[in-house]
Amino acid sequence: MRALPPFHGGKLAWTSNSSMQMRKLLKYQNGFVNQKTFYCNAASSATAIPSLDKVDFLKLQNGSDIRGVAVSGVEGEPVSLTEPVTEAIAAGFAAWLLDKKKVDASRKLRVSIGHDSRISAQKLQDAVSRGIASAGLDVVQYGLASTPAMFNSTLTEDEAILCPADGAIMITASHLPYNRNGFKFFTSDGGLGKNDIKDILERAASIYSNFLAKGYSVKASESVKKVDYMAVYTSDLVKAVRKAAGNIEKPLEGFHIVVDAGNGAGGFFAAKVLEPLGAITSGSQFLEPDGMFPNHIPNPEDKAAMKAITQAVLDNKANLGIIFDTDVDRSAAVDSTGRELNRNRLIALMSAIVLEEHPGTTIVTDSVTSDGLTSFIEKKLGGKHHRFKRGYKNVIDEVIRLNSIGEESHLAIETSGHGALKENHWLDDGAYLMVKLLNKLASARASGKGVGSKVLTDLVEGLEEPAIAVELRLKINQNHPDLKGRSFREYGEAVLQHLGNSIASNPKLQKATVNYEGVRVSGFGGWFLLRLSLHDPVLPLNIEAPSHEDAVKLGLEVSAAVKEFQALDTSALDKFVQP
What are the Alpha-D-phosphohexomutase alpha/beta/alpha domain coordinates in residue numbering (predicted)? Predict the structure, then answer.
């Protein structure tokens, strides 16, 4: 990892970067004098800064994202994403970007900023803008936007709308509660990885330490501009559907499609994508952005959310229902009969569409997909199923790796609703996934091969689905003496190692020979997977089986193997296996 630029008397030492922009960043560092006011948006009034607390920046890392608490009021959850912390993170990203791009003094870098509907969005957008602008970079604010649009802004080439952006920041915490927020970062190479995020946070910690030492006063830059980029992004989605239907202006005319945005950022899809294509969108719900999320969690995996969109489809006798998460990088659908097209069904549907276009290609998924899905992809569709790890960035990185070594793959998708296609620059885009479904509806009608969502439902015919599918979360008590000084991750790995050894001597069970995460085992007509959470002291246990009795048998095998680990809370598993 690149070394952090050290402080020397309040200055940062930099090399191989734009001298003009570096001078601005140095001025930003040196300008933090012992004043307790700062200026927002070039306003003449000053706002008092609260006392600055010490912050462990690395604790804000959530894999390839940054997340924290941005709004007070929830007991036990103190605010960690304050404005000074946010400004330091933005300045850290600016420094990282300058280091990465290494542009000369003839061009200023520009960063696009967007946010979802959270109540802390505007406050954090202002703080991010100050951090970026004060480092000498141009800031382009998009306002309410989607995460996929932010990445897309680094690819669009149109100087009239200040594109491409050299970097992009999306202010979001996905489906987490209203008091949370966070940041996702992009360049034209895609979303930043874990090491990049750690680098940015370490830079931010250095910048923030100067805040603590000297205080600061920052004036807003004139380099902040505003652009309606969502108009460009939605126009591209509309063009994609028209093209798939043979350049028909309104290929969805007569289709009744309802949208549930969960009061997140996805409300645009009804009026800006579906209606220009001729679709009827009456009955769409929760399209208005509301960061308190008063109706349901914007999450395609949430049962209440899926029940809400299913009911909307049935009540309005719609052909199709579409639901998004808060920042529109995940999605799911419901057919006209109320059948949910999410999780394994959505993966099966997208696999059918992609394998029709690219026969024999590899489909990359996360680790918790079903055995029935593997059979469907490989035996019914003639493709190859590559089951990898949880985490959308893990899945996308793996599909890129496979292509780089000559294994053709066009789809990376998680059961959570994250999905990325090669044709879309491996952009993790829930709206584009739904466009692929719309393409199928439009092209089928244009060619006389079918009308309505039955076209989609027929594509997943033959998918074997378990009678029982559960996920149980086994928490690790980090304060339990059984850890014996080990981290929760080390303890969790010990649990998995012991489970794997126990299974090896059990003739009733068969351990998966190819597995990239945790311990996956088949038996009693089903399977289980015990893995360590990517970020939390938790071992999620997924069980799928043809009956509750068989699922209990699998659960009992796990229970017997892990019972000696006293710091592991197995209460959820104990309750499940009780007669």
Answer: 63-205, 236-338, 343-444
Q: pLDDT above 90 covers what percent of the chain?
A: 84
Question: In terms of C-beta density within 10 A (0-12 exposed, 13-18 middle, 19 or more buried), how is residue 3 classed?
Answer: exposed
The DSSP bridge partners found for residue 419 are: 413
Beta strands in 279-387 (DSSP E): 320-324, 331-335, 340-341, 362-365, 384-387
User: What angle separates helix 194-214 from helix 83-101, to the nearest 10 degrees?
Assistant: 130
CATH number of 57-227: 3.40.120.10
Instruction: Kindly report the pTM of this predicted structure.
Output: 0.89
CA distance 291 to 275: 25
DSSP 4: P
What are the contacts of 517-526 at 24+ separation with CB within 8 A?
517/367, 517/388, 517/389, 517/390, 518/367, 520/367, 521/554, 521/557, 522/371, 523/553, 523/554, 523/557, 524/550, 524/553, 524/554, 525/550, 526/371, 526/466, 526/468, 526/550, 526/551, 526/554
Amino acid at 485: G
pLDDT of 175 above 60 = yes
Q: What is the CATH number of domain 232-459?
A: 3.40.120.10
Identical topology for domains 57-227 and 232-459: yes
The two tokens of residue 94 are: 């600016």
- CA atoms of 543 and 529, how far apart (whole Å): 7
Dist. CA 121–CA 139, nearest whole Å: 16
The tokens for 272 are: 């800006």
Q: Does position 76 have pLDDT exceeding 80, yes or no?
A: yes
What's the one-letter identity of residue 526?
Answer: G
With tokens 């950022």, the residue in question is 265
**CA of 125: how far to CAs of 27, 139, 178, 188, 221, in Å?**
22, 11, 16, 21, 14
Write out the two tokens for 264: 């997140």
Positive or negative CA dihedral for 447, 453, 454, 459?
positive
pLDDT in tens, 298-356: 999 999 999 999 999 999 999 999 999 999 999 999 999 999 999 999 999 999 999 99
Euclidean distance between CA atoms 57 and 80, whole angstroms: 9
- 533 token code pair: 């959470």
Mean pLDDT, residues 62-90: 95
Alpha-helical regions (H) of 102-146: 121-134
For residue 516, CA distances in Å to 31, 387, 389, 397, 558 come to 49, 8, 6, 14, 19
Do β-strands 224-226 and 138-144 pair in parallel, antiparallel, or remain unpaired? Answer: parallel
What does the domain layout of the chain look like in residue ranges?
57-227, 232-459, 468-577
What CATH superfamily classification does 468-577 receive? Alpha-D-phosphohexomutase, C-terminal domain (3.30.310.50)
